């Protein structure tokens, strides 16, 4: 049986980002983020989705349903999470202004990249980690991730 592009994306396989189901999910996330980011005075119950309870300030993401934030987690302003696949952020972790957590990746082979296929690699950030302002964690990020408590799942 053939898998949908979304199923491929969630499994960390090569997928087509322009697939209608993926585009619809991105549009829904954009609409929610627009409301979220525009209404800083919103009551918590309306502004925060339960799995994003630690996101206390303006932030940006691809889908939001691939993000898990544990208890006591804090994320400051203008953070970006490209959640093509799972992003897990542990208890009491603090993420400073402008940090980027990017699961999105692209093939290294130019011929495959030219087809427009993409993929994702999950990111798990441990408990009680501090990530400084402007730090970028992405699919090719390898150095110092253990020191910071960042674990990346590799297919």
From TrEMBL:
Record-level Gene Ontology MF annotations: maltose O-acetyltransferase activity
The protein, known as: Maltose O-acetyltransferase
InterPro entries recorded: Hexapeptide_acetyltransf, Mac_dom, Trimer_LpxA-like_sf
Annotated Maltose/galactoside acetyltransferase domain residues: 6-46
Superkingdom of origin organism: Bacteria
EC number: 2.3.1.79
Family according to the record: Belongs to the transferase hexapeptide repeat family.
UniProt xrefs under PANTHER family: ACETYLTRANSFERASE C18B11.09C-RELATED (PTHR23416:SF23), SIALIC ACID SYNTHASE-RELATED (PTHR23416)
Keywords, ordered alphabetically: Acyltransferase, Transferase
């Amino acid at each position: 049986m053939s898998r949908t592009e979304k199923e491929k994306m969630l499994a960390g396989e090569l997928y087509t980002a322009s697939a209608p189901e993926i585009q619809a999910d991105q549009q829904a996330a954009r609409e929610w983020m627009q409301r979220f980011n525009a209404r800083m005075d919103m009551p918590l119950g309306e502004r925060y989705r339960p799995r994003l309870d630690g996101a206390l300030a303006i932030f940006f993401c691809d889908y939001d349903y691939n993000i898990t934030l544990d208890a006591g987690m804090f994320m400051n302003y203008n953070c970006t999470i490209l959640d093509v696949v799972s992003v897990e952020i542990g208890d009491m972790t603090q993420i400073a202004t402008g940090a980027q957590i990017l699961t999105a990746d692209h093939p290294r082979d130019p011929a495959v990249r030219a087809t427009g296929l993409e993929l994702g690699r999950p990111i798990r950030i441990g408990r009680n980690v501090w990530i400084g302002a402007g730090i970028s964690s992405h699919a090719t990020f390898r150095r110092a991730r253990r020191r910071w408590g960042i674990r990346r799942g590799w297919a």
